[in-house]
Automatic annotation (TrEMBL):
Organism this protein belongs to: Saccharopolyspora flava
Signal sequence, renumbered to the chain: 1-32
Name the UniProt record assigns to this protein: Lipoprotein LprG
Superkingdom per UniProt: Bacteria
InterPro entries assigned: LolA/LolB/LppX
Matches recorded under PROSITE patterns: PROKAR_LIPOPROTEIN
Region (Disordered) location: 27-46, 266-285
Amino acid sequence: MPRARTRTAVLSAGLALTAALGACTSEPQPHAAVPRAAARPDPRPAAEPLLADTIGKINSTGSAHATMTGSLGIVGQLHADGVVRYRGPQADLALDGKTRNTRTDELAVSIVNSTGYLNTPLARPDANKRWLKISQDGSDFGSKLLSPALDQLHESVDPRATFSGVEAATRIQGTAPDTVDGRPTTRYDLRIRTDQAAEIAPDEQQRERFQQAADDGERELGFQLWLDDQGLPAKFAATTKVAQAGEVSLTSTYRDWGSPVDIPLPPAEQVGVLDGLPPMAQPPR
C-alpha cells in the first residue's frame, strides 16, 4: 500500500499514538482490487465465417486465370496476365507481362513449390541464362534482394496466404455491391487486427510480422476482397510495406475458376542465380 505523503502540519501526539496502536492491534487490511477497464467490444462483424467459406471454395476449385496490376516496389509498376494453381497450402503461378520503372521491360514470373523464377532484362544471371532463381532462404544476392517482393506477389495472388490462421482476428469494415469486369460482385473491406493476429497466427514469421506492425503503430492492416455470386474471389487488393522492396501494392483480378492450367518450370540450363548487381544496375563510377 503506498505510503501517505508527509503533510506540512505536524500531526498531534494523540493521532500519532492512535495510529500506532491501531497498527499493532488490528488485522492488516487487504488491498482494494482495482477493476481493470473492460475491453471495448468490436462492433464490426467477424470475418471468420466469410473467409472460411471463401478459402474452402478456393481449395475445392483449384485454379484460376488472373491479371495482376500495381507496384512491386523496387521492381517497378507491374501489369501481367497468367494462371494460378492452388495445391493444398501451396499456390503455383505463372505470369507474363511488363514492368515500368525508368523504362518498360518484359517480365515473366513462375513460382513453383515456393521457389520463384524471374525473367527480366533488368536481372539476368548472365548472357546465356534468362531466368533468375529466387529462393526464400537463398544466400545469393538476387534472392536476398528480390525474395521479399516476390513473396508479396505470391501472397497477393492467393488470399489464403493473407487470411489463413488469422480469420478470427479479421473484421468486416464494410460491404457494398460492385462489378468486376461486368460481373456482379460484393466488395468486402477487411481489417486484420495486428495485436490479435500476432497471438494466433500459426506461423512464426507471420506472428513476427504482425507484432512488428503492431509495435510500429499499425493497429490494423486493410485489404479489399470482391466475391462473385458463387463466393469465389473476383478481385483482391493489398498494400504492404516490404523490407528491401518498398511499398508493394497489387490488385489481382480472377476469372475462369476451375479451368485447367499449365505452369511449366523454366529449362534448367537457362536458370541461374545472381551473386551481385547485374551489369546494367551497377552504380555509375
